[in-house]
Amino acid sequence: MANVLFIKANGRPDDQAVSLQLFNTFKAQYVENHPEDHIEEIDLFAENLPYYDNDKITAMFKAGKGMELTEEEEKEAAYVKSYVDQFMRADKIVLAFPLWNFSVPAVLHTYFDYLCQAGTTFRYTANGPEGLLNGKQAFLLNARGGVYSEGPAAGMEMAVTYVTKIMNFLGIEDTQEVIVEGHNQFPDKAEEIIEAGLEEAKEAAVTF
Questions:
Q1: By the 8 A CB rule, do 175 and 167 touch?
Q2: What sections of the protein cross the membrane (predicted)?
Q3: Cβ neighbours of residue 91 under 8 Å, at least 6 residues apart?
Q4: Is domain 3-207 given the CATH code 3.40.50.360 in the classification?
Q5: Residues of the chain with pLDDT under 70
Q6: How many CB atoms lie within 10 A of CB 136?
Q7: Which of 72, 89, 141, 142 is the most buried (most CB within 10 A)?
Q8: DSSP secondary structure, 55-94, as one string
Q9: How far apart are CA 45 and CA 43, in angstroms?
Q10: What is the pTM (predicted TM-score) of this model?
């Protein structure tokens, strides 16, 4: 039995968000084919995470150093740690997110700010930072209206690239992805493009 954490980072209605259609398709197929696994789901827009501000940074720093915390700092540290612990419990992570303005929604960036904790999810060594979450698997589900895999916009893709780098930074080297792109750029082919992506997600969920 595996612990699987499904994370969605898109606040739009499902019928208007291709990344959420990928999420729903992948999750349904995964649950059907892995009934023994323990599933957790987190909707980052519903969570409405506060920015990783100075209060949280200070609280987590002091906690990591074994320093005495104030009552308010204990609350801040416990709040951040709840998300870190949930992520660390997972054997597999599924992340669904769109490409917005060349990057990811701000709430996903904030979530990663919570997760990147020196001494817990990564550590500094003489050779540079080293991820501590080895052995986990991640699957990325991304949608982008234009074509960014090649051509003039390729250099502006900083969503899948960013999330993959974060996973690798944390020690998660085993990453897979399904990307739907070009459905807004080529509206006459949109239905075909989206359906192909959903089918790819369905097939991938069986073997993930």
A1: yes
A2: none
A3: 2, 3, 4, 135, 136, 137
A4: yes
A5: none
A6: 22
A7: 141
A8: HHHHHHHHHHTT----HHHHHHHHHHHHHHHHHHH-SEEE
A9: 6
A10: 0.96
Q: Residue 155 has what DSSP assignment?
A: G
Query: How would DSSP label each residue in 173-197?
Result: -EEEEEEEE-TTTSGGGHHHHHHHH
Opening angle at CA 139, ends 184 and 187, nearest 5: 10
Domain layout of the chain by residue ranges = 3-207
CB atoms within 10 A of CB 4: 22
Q: What is the Cβ-side half-sphere exposure of residue 125, based on CA atoms within 13 angstroms?
A: 8
The label of the residue with tokens 């459905």 reads 183
DSSP bridge partners of 77: none
- The terminus-to-terminus CA distance of the chain in angstroms comes to 13
Give the integer Cα–Cα distance in Å for 105 and 139. 18
| Calpha distance 205→6 (Å, rounded) | 12
Residue 200, pLDDT score: 98
